[in-house]
Design brief:
Layout lengths: L2 H23 L6 E6 L5 E6 L5 H19 L18 H37 L6
Helix pairs in contact: 1-2, 1-3, 2-3
């Protein structure tokens, strides 16, 4: 399996996990769930139960954007702010630059994904009273 395919799969797994967790616990959630946390941890804003779908929705959107950006780097390099003009590089170096840029987008997406998954788990545990915030 190619490295890029593996990284794309690693990006899809947390998104799917977030949606599964939200749908699994939705019927157990109280009518109000935390939507924001204060500086010291406890929630300081609450919303209706359906707001729990906001986090995985934003997660899916951000990950989709980063996946698209990782795939478009070779076709539209002018969209990226490289420290050097890619036209001045040899073909081999330019291809490596584009490949590394696409890989960077995928790695950033994995990190963002894991953070969103952590937020989903935290929101549900706080809403259920398992955690304090």
């Amino acid at each position: 399996m190619k490295k890029r395919t593996l990284m794309i799969l690693l990006n899809l797994l947390p998104v799917i996990a977030s949606w599964i967790i939200v749908f699994h616990y939705y019927h157990l959630l109280p009518e109000e769930v935390p939507t924001h946390y204060g500086l010291h941890g406890p929630p300081d804003s609450w919303g209706c139960k359906s707001t729990i779908f906001t986090v995985p929705s934003v997660q899916a959107g951000v990950v989709a954007l980063l996946l698209v950006l990782s795939l478009l780097v070779k076709r539209y390099p002018w969209m990226y702010n490289f420290p050097i003009d890619p036209k001045t590089l040899s073909d081999r170096v330019r291809d490596e630059l584009y490949s590394l840029t696409g890989d960077l987008c995928l790695v950033v997406a994995i990190i963002v994904n894991l953070l969103f998954l952590c937020i989903v788990v935290t929101d549900i545990n706080v809403a259920l009273g398992v955690w304090g915030g």
